[in-house]
Amino acid sequence: SLEDQLGRDMVQELVGEYRSSATDLARRIEAASASGDLKELGDAAHTLKSSSGSLGLKLLYRQASTVEESARLGRAEAADEADGLTALLADGLARLEARYSVVAGA
Q1: Rounded to an integer, what distance in angstroms lies between the CA atom of residue 12 and that of residue 44?
Q2: What stretches in the chain show pLDDT beneath 70?
Q3: For burial by CB atoms within 10 Å, which of 13, 24, 28, 35 has the most?
């Protein structure tokens, strides 16, 4: 596990940093979806995919990957596919914070 490899303190720090960056990425994804900016949508989804995968958030990783690919191919449905990312992110953050006892805002 990540905790075995890096230690609990480091993982807690990573989760805290992830919370901040992923929340910003979610805002970028929402704005790009609303404006139809597929390049920005693809870029933000790519970054969210990578960081989520690193922390083992497989469902979020897969959905972000789908959004990224659709956006890169110029498919308008990428915005619709991005709708589920916010809920998956909230769920993933809750699971990470519960597992690693990270206090929100810390």
Answers
A1: 23
A2: 102-106
A3: 28
Separation between Cα atoms, residue 88 and residue 60, nearest integer Å: 6
Taking the CA atoms of 56, 28, 36 and 79 in sequence, report the sign of the dihedral they define: positive
Query: How far is 101 from 77, CA to CA, in rounded Å?
Result: 37
Q: What pTM did the predictor assign?
A: 0.87
Judge residue 32's burial from the number of C-beta atoms within 10 Å of its C-beta, 0-12 exposed, 13-18 middle, 19 or more buried. buried
| DSSP assignment string, 4-32 | HHH-HHHHHHHHHHHHHHHHHHHHHHHHH
Report phi then psi at 55, rounded to 5.
Answer: -100, 10
In whole angstroms, give the CA distance from residue 43 to residue 4: 31
CA distance 23 to 79: 17
